[in-house]
Structure formats: C-alpha cells, structure tokens
C-alpha cells in the first residue's frame, strides 16, 4: 500500500508583495518551503506525492517545482501525480459572479481518481518539521482519521495576528476545533481580542491524516454544501468544517502532537524570520547542504 502525501498547491498563484510567496527562496541554496516538506515526507517513508494545482498554473508549476521533483522522485521510487482543482468542476451550475475557489475540501476531492489508500494532506507553503511526517506515515497504516497538532507558541508570527484552529483534545482524541482569528503574541503569552490563549494549546495547521473512505465523504457532502451554502460567492468547502461535522456524528479523530516549530510566510516581513529559522536548522545538522543527499544513499 502506498503512503500518500497530498500537497495543496492550487493557491500557489496568489500574489504576495512582489512575487509568489510559495516560491520565495528560504534555504541557503535557494530552496523553497515545499522542498523541505517533500524531503521530510520521503525520509519518513512516503512514496507517493500528489500535487493539487490549477490548470492555468500547470506549466509554471512544473517548470519551477514539478519537473525537478519528478526527476528526484523517479530515482527514489516515489510516484508523483497531479490533480487539478477548477472552479467549474462542480455538480451544479456555477453561481453567477463566483470567482473564489471552493476550498480545501473541494481541492482534495479533485484527487478522488488518483488515490485508493489512506493519505495525508498539507499546505504547499507551510514548513511542518520532521516529526509530523514521521508520525503521519506510521498513523496512515491505521486507515483512520488523524490530525498532526502543533503547539501554539511554535506557530505564532512576530509581525502580526494569525488565525489558528485551537484544538480541544480529550484522551488523545480531537473533540472540536475553534477557528480563532487575530491571535497575537503578548508579553505574557497570546491573546485574541479580549481572550487569553494558552501558549501550549494544540492547534491545527491543516496537516491531516485521512482514511480512504474520506474521499466518499467529500463526494457525498459537496452537493449538500452547494445546496445549503449561505453565500454562493464566498462560502468554502473546508476540511476543518467537514471534519468537525464528522466529529458531531461520532467519528474519532486522533491528535498526533508535534513539538516542531511551524514556519510560514503569512506576512512579507515573515520571510527573514523563516530564512533565519532554516539557517538555525542547518547549523544544528537537521539538513545537509545538499538537501536531498541523504535520500539518495
């Protein structure tokens, strides 16, 4: 059975400052964040990568990332596939004026013909650390629902407020996710509005472990979402909301805590902090100067 990693990259064309934030070099050799995710996933035992992109960025994506990854993976016995998320790929008429993508649940649904095994899902522009991939690769063998949870203090930005899904956990199981906006660092911890949030709270960074049957859940749920959405121009079919619905129906979702720091370029000013964080990882020996050298041995 393949150990499959799905990478959400359909939003890779989103503009950020003077360029595309997912393609900003952050490593000493010009590596981008997705390089590290793929390295860490393969090192942990993943042997199939599915990129979710859009048709209109296919050529650019393959030129910058895809072709390079295909060449690397071919020599490592890792399969690379592409799925395409399109605004018009819905079982209904497109609402007039809709230009916003349909969300992460719709993106994963685009993989339904490419996946016949449990799989993990991550964002293309987030650095998750090695521990999460190791735990996810082992957990996928259970063909069950799981979430890699990160400690809040390891995910905050020094620049401004962030949105995080604060997890409620009992006996290692997820009981709910509270999507909390504008979380900022304070002298004593973290705060959202007038609410203090513990720095050691576990949060979701959209690193999911999902069973094979989840694809059927998405396929059956998407038409219902289209029928019941409140705002046809903006509502999204999102993984956290879908999983929360499953929790209410009695599904069990294991939480796999990671102690690693999460890095992401939420603000343009975050880039230097990410670059410095990778320098520190290299200094500690977490990565070799030739990033993929250890995989080729």
Low-pLDDT runs of 5+ residues are 14-18
CATH class of the domain at 4-146 and 204-232 and 261-295: Alpha Beta
Q: Biggest β-sheet, characterized? A: 11 strands, mixed
**Percent helix among the residues?**
25-40%
Supply Rg: 19 Å
Strand content: 25-35%
- Count, helices: 7
CATH topology of the domain at 4-146 and 204-232 and 261-295: Spore Coat Polysaccharide Biosynthesis Protein SpsA, Chain A
Structural class: alpha/beta
Oligomer state of the chains in this structure: single chain
Number of strands: 15
Order of helices and strands: EEEHEHEHEEHEEEEEEHHEEH
Fold topology:
Layout: E1 4-8, E2 15-16, E3 19-20, H1 33-44, E4 48-53, H2 58-74, E5 79-84, H3 104-109, E6 119-123, E7 126-127, H4 130-139, E8 145-151, E9 162-170, E10 173-186, E11 189-192, E12 195-197, E13 202-210, H5 214-228, H6 239-248, E14 253-258, E15 263-264, H7 270-283
Parallel strand pairs: 1-4, 1-6, 4-5, 8-14
Antiparallel strand pairs: 2-3, 6-13, 7-15, 8-13, 9-10, 9-13, 10-11, 11-12
Helix pairs in contact: 1-4
